[in-house]
Amino acid sequence: MEYALLQAVFLPLLLSPIAYIIGRKLGTTPAMWFTFGILLYSTILIILSVLSGTTEEHYPWTEQFGEFGFLLDGLASPFAIIIYLLSTILVFYSKPYMIHRFHEQYAEENHEIVSTNGHSTLIESSSLSNYVNAKSGLYFALYLVFAMGMLGTVLSTNLIEFYVFFEVMLIPGFFLVALWGAGPRRKIGLMFLLWTHAGAVVLLLGFLMIGLSLGSFDFADIHESEIPQNILMLSAIAISIGLGVKMAVFMYHIWLPWVHGSAPTPISALLSPAMIGIGAYGIFRLIVEFLPNTFADLSIWFHIWGLVTMIYGGAMALMQDDIKRLLAYSSISQMGYILFGIGSMSVLGLSGAEMMYVTHALGKGILFMMAGIIIVKVGTRNISQLGGLAGKMPITAVCAVIGALTIMGVPPTSGFMGEWTLFYGALETAIKDGSTIRAVTFGLGLVATVLTMSYILWMLKRVFFGKLPEHLEHVKEGSWYMTAPMMVLAGFTVVLGIYPDIFFKQIIPYMNGVLGV
Amino acid sequence: MTTEVLGLPLEIGASSAWLIWILPFIAALIMPGIGKISKHATGYVAVGFALMSAISAASLIPMALEAHEIHDQISWIDSIGLKAGVLADPLSIIMANVVGWISFLIMIYSTGYMKGDKSITRFWFWMLFFIGSMQLIVLSDNLLQVFFGWEGVGLASYALISFWYRDKKKDHVGVEGRTVLGMLDYYAPTHAGMKAFIMTKVGDVMMIAGMLLIFLFAGTFGFRELMHDTTWATTMSAQGLLVPAFVLLFGGAIGKSAQFPLNEWLLEAMTGPTAVSALIHAATMVKAGVFLVMRLAPLVFALSAAGILADQFFEIILIVGAVTALLLGLQGMVNSEIKKVLAYSTGSQIGYMMMVLGIAGLSQQFVNGYTAGFFHLISHAMFKASLFMAAGSLLHVVGSRFMTDMGGLRKNMKKTYAFMWAAGLGLMGAPFITTGFWSKDSIFGAIYTSGHPWALPIFTIAVLTAVITAFYTTRMLGLVFFGSKSKHVKKMEAEGHHIHEAPLSMWVPYGILAVLTIVIGLVGLSFEGGLHEIFTNYLEESFGIYSVHNEIENSILPGFLDGINPVALTASLSAFGIGTGLGYVFYIGRWVDPVQFVNSNILFSTFHKVILNRFYLNAIIYWCFVVSPLWLSRGVFRYFEQTAIDYGMNNGLQKAVGWSAKVVQGTQTGVTQSYLFVFGAGLLFVVLILLI
Question: Are B645 and A318 within 8 A, CB to CB?
Fold first, then answer.
């Protein structure tokens, strides 16, 4: 298939204005189907490319930067599949959630008009539907660009290209948060833009150091031995920090709880598992693969940093009352697992880390959708006001439990497959190197899994079990638009947990190659 | 390895071995669909599938008797080179039958016990999931697959313990308002489920560490592969990692089997429906830990026979078992909730099994301890399932979990009364007629004749625990059936409730098990002999563990007690006598008032208080692992996350930008003179630089 990857990346971008027009002229549902169609087609292209083995495409670009290419190999394919899978499924989920949000916002804005004019105006239904249509057009257009930016990043074959896509996903992200977020959304949107952009700039510095000293930005031209020693470590640290901000690891996580808490829920469900994990992809590609010797020096720091993030995120998640903020801290903790796995510097450890990305995307995707259903159907996001909802929304509860099990790493969900390989990697290096620090981090890492389990189970208990407060008597199950995507992901995580070779088949040979085993 | 067993091709045996654990899962998966069609049908389907699974297990019994084994593998995670498989050897076949048939009876009981429950579909789903997971543990041929079942069991227990998730008052356990060291001793179902899941997870985490250590050196999770080539053990032993790895694996068993110090979840697990308690205690959950040790112990013992020493592994099992047996047995003497007494008793009895498995590895005659442990597992499974189901009937009828709310029920519930006596006698170890007697006696014998330096102290603990067991069982029966009716029962009768026998579907299952306890008990010695022979062959063929055949000469005992150790026999007879006698004095004859007796003496009352407060272990665990971490997290959240990170970095940055903007703003005065002045100064500066 020629141009398959090019289509998969650029079709959503090129057609996003049409999605806007369709939304504006025809309404939410046609825009939703149109977006779904594009993304489904692109997803199928990606899956077909993965099935046909490693796929590469190269296109001429500028003299200075080199080629514009796409590479779908063992590392990129799980990321690519998960990103588009989630994006495709969440299109459905977006519809009821965003309509709910637009209505809320319409009421808010009209209320403002009312108060400034001093007299009440009848809300005309036609003006409301016009409002909703216009907004949903914009939403789906931004959504497409956002998805495309994420995919572009993981398929890039050039440092500058990587950077461009890295920033491209930021811009729609900013607008999505600033336009339809909860709370002080413009401020939070700015915060998101500012922090992740600052991270990206540090990343760019690292890229420039490497690219300028090599005279080429193409991935194919990056050879660690040719980079001058004095800037090698510096650039690796710059790249790690830049990606660390994206991954929201400990000390760089400032933005994440705010943004994930505030963003419209389908976007949180994309941001949290899919987007921040791209930081992990960057570390795999840029540091583990291209700078193996530097990676060997840095790995222990990744390991410890990951461990601290795991525990810190988990401990903070215990303290949250806002359900989406809880999940956001949980994402921080999960990114810690991934970094911990990367730091293990062993084949199965690295494979486990990548598997954690996949499983976190599935599990956290489900949990964010659960939060969204609660926000829409109950109207609150405070855990203290919830309880006993399992009887009122059984499908949501079942899916949430499966999502929770995925995050906790309980078989038969995919979480277990990620977790045991990851910890095996940590143990392997600890024993082989005879390193006490690594043995201790391994032990503490296992303790962190108990912490993860505690905050997740406690959340489930407070949301779904216990006495049903009186004000929740009328609550109903979410619509099929919202529950069906959850069920798809829940099914997938169980299938993957029983048969992990779907992804391991690609990941493990790649990791073997990278670590030279 | 033959391709044909008893005229049947091996494939048929292999497929029934797979079916044993797959059938319950299939049933669980279709359960929601059936529930949609007809709630009534779910029970039949669930019981039917449990029966089919049990029949598949039974079809393998001939193979176990012939000491054949089936090892069938399919490819699983090819990229790591892992295979899935079933291993049906005598150990797993007998275990699968115990699990399968007892679960089947409990399922029948559940049709009566759970009648009319709105969430019946969910109940059946998790019961089947529970059974399937347990059978998966039993039949897996490798540790990773065992872990799937292992966590499945944990998950099912979580779901079933908190089955009544509405947290109604009647579903709690403990005494409302009672605190120990400031910790409430009163638990809601959802809390209890969470506690069980997290506490067993602590064990699981240890287990996974052990598993990974072994996989690291051996490159396989398979039980047979580990035995086939033992170079890994030599390497591990040289690095001093062999014993830690196995002890970590045992950590998993500590969690699942509720052994000290991870025993506290078992009590709160009583919030689940009683059918669930019966399943957890008799067939699934807690027996998983014992089974894991049984899977591993011959392997470790065979290694030590090959010169790779791992004695500490068995010593730790021995100590943990002994401590648990005594600790939980003591607590069983004072509790007033009938299910809690039974729960303590389970922990204590599992302690026996662990104890004897530990001693088996430390003695020359491995098979004696091994058989004794397994025999006790079987007899405990029967009488404990029976007792729990009977207790469920009592709860069902009386509507209270406290024994003090029962009393004098022997006339109203004659069948339950009789069956509880039969099963209770099994637990007490009534001489010569119950399985409990023979299995306990063989445990005593194995410990006494082990020749290990610790044999005597451990033997003392075992006998002491037997006295305690007989006492608390008698106490339970006395409180429930004897004496006068309690106020609660009288009130119920005054309100027109008729205290009556439980329905047929409920008393038949526990009746069967109670009768079996006696029937097998009557032929206990030959039953044990049979098991002994099977395991002797099994250990020889699969592990190369040969037992020393030494005839007991000039036994002073009569002919039908051939092979029994006289000291052990005396000990078990007197333990039964003393324990039951004391129980009779206090609770059946009611010659002495237990409350007065305890309060008569400061020593007694202090001791009573300590064991009633669970040796403060539960409260200490809560303080250390729940309260403190939460307190610490809150501190970090307030003073670091919200202050340093949120306020410091976010708002700080914002303020800094705002402040610098103000500084810059300050220069934008709009006053021409000041602009001109700065302009002039700058010009002067540039000119000066140029000149110099």
Answer: no
Residue pLDDT, tens place only, A72-115: 988 999 999 999 999 999 999 999 999 999 988 888 887 655 44
| Omega prior to B261 cis, within 30 of 0 | yes
Gap from A217 CA to chain B (nearest CA, Å): 33
Tokens of B425: 């006698």
C-alpha B152/C-alpha B146 separation (Å) is 10
Ordered by start, the domain boundaries in chain B are 1-161, 162-548+560-612, 618-691
pLDDT of residue A118 exceeding 50:
no
**SS3 track for B286-339:** HHHHHHHHHHHHHHHHHHHHCCCCCHHHHHHHHHHHHHHHHHHHHHHCCCCEHH
Residue B439 identity (one-letter amino acid) = S
A424 touches B: beta carbon within 8 Å: yes
Identify the H or E element spanning B440. Answer: helix B435-448
From the list A251, A315, A499, the residue facing B636 with the nearest CB is A315
Q: pTM for the whole thing?
A: 0.92
List average pLDDT for each run of 10 residues in chain B, which is 692 residues long.
50 84 93 89 92 92 82 88 90 92 93 87 93 93 92 92 88 85 87 92 93 92 87 88 92 92 89 90 88 92 82 92 93 89 92 92 86 92 92 87 85 88 90 88 88 88 93 92 86 83 87 91 86 88 75 56 79 91 89 87 90 89 91 91 81 80 78 82 86 76
Asked if omega into A412 is within 30° of 0 (cis), the reply is: yes
Residues of chain B found within 8 Å of residue A441, distances taken between Cβ atoms? none
For B45, B223, B293, B677, the CA distances from B680, given in Å and listed in that order, are 97, 90, 91, 5
The size of the A-B interface in CB pairs under 8 A is 115
Instruction: List, as one string, the DSSP characters of B584-642.
Output: IIIIIS--S-HHHHHHT-HHHHHHHHHHHTGGGHHHHHHIIIIIHHHHHHHHHIIIIII
Phi and psi dihedrals of B579, rounded to 5? -60, -50
Extents of the domains making up chain A: 1-290, 306-517
Contact B265, B199 (CB under 8 A): yes
